[in-house]
Amino acid sequence: MTSLAEGDFESSTEHLLVLEAGRAERHYWRDIWHYRELFAILAWRDVSVRYKQTVIGVAWAVVRPFLTMVVFTIVFGRLARLPTAGTAPYPIMVFVGMLPWFLFSSILSEASNSLIANTNLVGKVYFPRIIIPSATAVVALVDFTINFAMLAGLMIWFAYVPSWRLVFLPLFVVLALCASLGPSLFMTALNVKYRDFRYIIPFIIQFGVYISPVGFSSVIVPEKWRFWYALNPIVGPIDGFRWCLLGAPLNLREFATSCAVIAVLLWLGIAYFRKTERSFADII
Amino acid sequence: MSNDVVIRVEGLGKKYLIGHESERERYLALRDVVMRAGRNAWRKTADMVRGRDIIAGDTVEEFWALKDLHFEIRRGEVVGITGRNGAGKSTLLKILSRITEPSEGRAVIRGRVASLLEVGTGFHPELTGRENIFLNGAILGMTRAEIKRKFDEIVAFAEIEKFLDTPVKRYSSGMYVRLAFAVAAHLEPEILVVDEVLAVGDAEFQKKCLGKMSEVAAGGRTVLFVSHNMATVNRLCQSCFLLDSGRIIASGDAPSVTARYLVSDAGTSAMREWGDAKSRPGDEVARLIRVWVKQNGAISDTVDIRYPVEIGMTYDVLKDGVNLLNSFSFFDAQGTFLFTTGDFSDSDWASPRGAGLYTATCKVPGNVFSETVIRVVAEVATRHPVYHLHVLEYDSVGFQVVDQGLPGSVRGPWGAALGGVMRIMCDWATVPGPGAHPARPDRALSP
Fold it and tell me: Is residue B323 a contact partner of residue B307, using CB atoms and an 8 Å limit?
């Protein structure tokens, strides 16, 4: 009798939710789709809060990359006399590399703190947790757009015409986003559990800007280091950006390596995040 | 029949790991501190490598916040969950609203669940009232279209029309809470899970909130309501669970379960008896033997608000020739002193009595107490030469006053909260026109 009732109850096709220890979410991606409006509104909140109550607002998104570009051009271009990529002026080469790098570094630093900053939400309501770190990517994309407009201005200033391969840029933006989200999700989940990672991230970013081709071009990297160099997930997007905007050569084998690393990191990040997200509310 | 079940819980349990600082190392030398820090750092690193959670302290203990829960809730039921602090109520709600996962067992839920564990979840102080309505609505699971449709209603309910475009950090706390509750109140899930959110706001607003809750319940939706407030649970819920240390210790209709809560919480019941002569409350003049609460002739810890309640006590007078006065004092759940009553009618309370047993009973009329837990203080005192208490027993007995909204109570058909510490039945008459004006003749009604 009981078992019959149970059968009836659970075979019903209505929205049915089973909560069990260690149970994998059956409709994980559908659930995320269902919460797309929350994603949009959280992203909008992050963007709007970021520019409220800051005196010069958008200017911060302009000043930081501009000064970085100036310093890198002087240090690497003028003082160290490193070669540029293709025919582009050194400042443009640096700026093109900075676009994906800033996207990567701001997603990594914002996302990894996002869950902790939203502790009250995590402990009080259910929604797929992945929404919160992913929403920070939208803020980074807004900054990216501003930076891109600056690049356009810079190209006009130097009277530089970008390559026709510009049309492929959206693909590389997606690649850069994937490269950022993988490590970010991994770090976000780790940061909830072990707060030590809060101190590691600024270090990664500080260190990363020198081992990634931001202030210099990939062509100067010696041949024997190339394989290890290509394992850096952000090398692929930066070289891709320079390929499609500046017509710089793209080493396909290295690019494929970088893409493979990005795919593995993205898979690892999502898998680890999913594995730990059910216990976030208990440990945050 | 099984189609009615919207929540089924089978063997549900939730375990937490808690750490302790070890006791034996209270007095520490520097060497011990260094060694302990080293050991803990080693253990934490090992835990991290193995992917386990980090627990502060030297020894780790398992703690079951919930254990072996079984129950079913049917569509349209309003179920109360009560229990002391730490009984596991909030953990249960967190599991049912998917915030945390159970450690064992399972829960099957049919229908969309919305949980109100706190009003104003996700409110951002920098954003305006309008923006926060959309933000909070989305967080609680409403779609944008749904919020747009209900927007005006929400604003009207919260009474914040003028401040819609002001950042909520400039709101008064009352406005903030009203706005937060207004958004939550307009959720339309099949199952609504509510934690004690009603404990916020002024009395006026609480009334509004309770009205909204009853409305939701009347609309045929399932409501799970967690509260300490027995009066609210009794009024809103048909059935109720009583949790204690993570287990259900009583379930059934709300009045009888809330009465159990009273017993377990206050340590009192409808009848107390002290058998052993030495342990009886009192002194060398008088000692209390028994105190009880009766309604309709039966001992009962739940009383119907409409009918008289009989409180009685039996005490032993140990000394001849003392003038004694017996009385009861009544306190509500919040500890408010309601009133005191003594047997002044007894013509010889002022004259000396002989030793022996005495029994005093007192009948409090119906429609006097409000819907709360009443705690009774039993007193036996000497009046002469100075007032002196021989027996003073706090919380001697306690009972829950229940108003189910049946005819004959002060409440009548009013469904929401009624404030005040007493419920007195008054004669009311409301007629059209100015009526017979009782004013003094020298003060005419102004034209």
Answer: no
Average pLDDT of A240-252?
89
Question: What separation, in Å, do the N-terminal and C-terminal C-alpha atoms of chain B show?
Answer: 67
What are the chain A neighbours of B107 within 8 Å (beta carbons)?
18-20
pLDDT grade, residue A6 (50/70/90)? very low
Of A14, A23, A123, the CB nearest to B110: A14
- pLDDT of B20 reads 64
Beta strand pairing status for B271-273 and B5-20? Answer: unpaired
Residue in A6, A17, A123 nearest the CB of B99? A123
Number of H helices, E strands in chain A: 13, 1
User: Distance between CA B254 and CA B256 in Å, rounded?
Assistant: 6
Contact B101 A23 (CB under 8 A): yes
pTM for this prediction: 0.70
Task: Break chain B into its structural domains and give their ranges.
Answer: 66-265, 271-402
Which of B17, B101, B113, B193 to mutate to probe the A interface, most A CBs <10 Å?
B101
Lowest mean pLDDT among A50-54, A66-70, B443-447: B443-447
Helix, strand, coil percent content, chain B, rounded in steps of 5: 25, 35, 40
Instruction: Write down the pLDDT at residue A7.
Output: 44
- Render the burial of A23-45: b for 16+ CB within 10 Å, e for the rest: eeeeeeeeebeebebbbebbbbb
Phi, psi of B132 (to 5 degrees): -70, -30
**pLDDT band, residue A1 (cuts 50/70/90):** very low
What is the distance in angstroms between the Cα of B69 and the nearest Cα belonging to chain A? 13
The residue behind tokens 């049309």 is A167
CATH number for B271-402: choose from 2.70.50.60, 3.30.300.20, 2.60.40.10, 3.10.450.50: 2.70.50.60
Q: How far apart are CA A14 and CA B8, in angstroms?
A: 15
Instruction: Among A64-73, A179-188, B223-232, name the one with the lowest average pLDDT.
Output: B223-232
- pLDDT > 80? residue A108: yes
Q: Angle between the A131-157 and A59-72 helix axes, to the nearest 10 degrees?
A: 60
Angstroms from A141 CA to nearest CA on chain B: 21
**Option in A14, A21, A124 nearest B102 (CB):** A21
C-alpha pair distances (Å), B393 with each of A119, B334, B375: 47, 18, 11
Residue A137: what pLDDT? Answer: 92
The amino acid at residue A153 is G
Q: Do B103 and A10 make contact, defined as CB atoms within 8 angstroms? A: no
**Do residue B96 and residue A19 have CB atoms under 8 angstroms apart?**
yes
The third-level CATH classification (topology) of the domain covering B66-265 is Rossmann fold (3.40.50)
Q: Is omega for the bond preceding B441 within 30 degrees of 0, making it cis? A: no
C-alpha gyration radius of chain B: 28
Low-confidence ranges of chain B (pLDDT < 70): 1-3, 19-30, 50-59, 85, 196-207, 229-231, 259-269, 334-335, 346-350, 384-385, 437-447
Distance from CA of A3 to the nearest CA of B (A): 11
ipTM at complex level: 0.81
Distance from CA of A203 to the nearest CA of B (A): 20
Q: A-B interface: how many C-beta pairs under 8 angstroms?
A: 120
Strand ranges, E, within chain A: 16-20
Q: Is A70 helix (H, G, I), strand (E, B) or coil?
A: helix
